[in-house]
Amino acid sequence: MKQFLLKNKILIRSKKIRVYAITAMVILIAVMAGVGNCLKEIKILQLIGGTDDITLFENNFEHIRRILSPFGVIGYYSDKKYDARTFCLTRYTLSPRIIVQGMEHPFVIGNFSRFKNPGEFAKARNLSIMETVDKNIVLFKKRSE
Q: How far apart are CA 142 and CA 129, in angstroms?
């Protein structure tokens, strides 16, 4: 009976050791995979100059941030059918200002993909161009009537 109990204790201990060893290996593999992914991302960022697309987007709006008052409501117009990413990035970049879809406000951010001449767009909607960020993004001001 003593031998049976001794064998049982040894079996239980060896099972616990195996469970701990397997758990440790799984954790080690997960940590190594995470570190490997981080190192890949760092290498990619170094190759593209150390900036991600959100930082580049923010840099495009630097001059507009200086022009606009720090608070207020700004309209947003896009000729793209569904442009949630750019709209959200614009809201993030220009916060604490409130960005809403529509052109009823004194200032409007226009985001164009197909429209070639923002001047024609502005004239047709009683707007004037205040600042051109790049070929796609324009800050408009509503003309006084």
A: 9
Measured CA to CA, the distance from residue 45 to residue 21 in angstroms comes to: 36
Type of residue at 41: E
CB 51 within 8 A of CB 45: yes
Q: State the Cα–Cα distance between residues 122 and 43, nearest whole angstrom.
A: 43
Q: Determine contact, residues 133/60, Cβ cutoff 8 Å.
A: yes
* Residue 111: closest CA among 71, 67, 88, 80: 80
Cβ count within 10 A of residue 52: 13
> What Cα–Cα distance (Å) separates residue 3 from each residue in 6, 7, 8, 105?
5, 6, 8, 88
Contact 76, 107 (CB under 8 A): no
Q: What is the pLDDT of residue 96?
A: 92
Q: Distance between alpha carbon 15 and the CA centroid of its chain, in Å? A: 47
Distance CA 40, CA 34 (A): 10
pLDDT, tens only, 109-144: 988 877 677 878 888 888 888 888 777 888 999 887
Instruction: Report d(CA 123, CA 127) in Å as an integer.
Output: 6
